[in-house]
Design goal:
Elements: H1 2-5, H2 7-10, E1 14-18, E2 21-27, E3 33-39, E4 42-44, H3 49-52, H4 55-84, H5 90-97
Antiparallel strand pairs: 1-2, 2-3, 3-4
C-alpha cells in the first residue's frame, strides 16, 4: 500500500503551475516528502494565499501531510520489528519498499 502511494513520486516530482507560481511535491533521498514553492524562479517559504484555496493545491498539501504521517508510521513499525528481532525475507522487504 505504501509503495503505491508514492509510485508517481518515485519517478519525479509532481508539479502544479498556476500563473507565475509553481508548487512541487517530491521525495528526498530519505523518502521524506517536500513541498517546494517557486514564483518567477525564486523559492518561496509559503504558498500564496490566493492559491491555498485552489482544490489542486489543497490536495497536494493534504497528500504531503498523509505521506509524512505514513513515513513516520512505517519507520516506527520497522524500528519495532528490529527491536523484536523480526526477520524479513528479501521478497517481503521488496514489497514494503518498492
Amino acid at each position: 500500500m505504501e509503495a503505491k502511494a508514492v509510485a508517481d513520486l518515485a519517478k519525479g516530482a509532481v508539479t502544479i503551475a498556476e500563473g507565475e507560481v509553481s508548487i512541487s511535491l517530491s521525495l528526498d533521498d530519505r523518502g521524506i516528502p517536500n513541498l517546494t514553492i517557486t514564483k518567477k524562479g525564486k523559492a518561496q517559504k509559503t504558498i500564496p494565499a490566493a492559491l491555498k484555496k485552489k482544490p489542486e493545491v489543497a490536495a497536494l498539501q493534504e497528500r504531503k501531510q498523509k505521506l509524512t504521517q505514513q513515513a513516520t508510521r512505517m519507520r516506527y513499525s520497522l524500528e519495532q520489528a528490529m527491536c523484536r528481532g523480526d526477520r524479513f525475507t528479501g521478497t517481503e522487504l521488496r514489497q514494503l519498499l518498492v
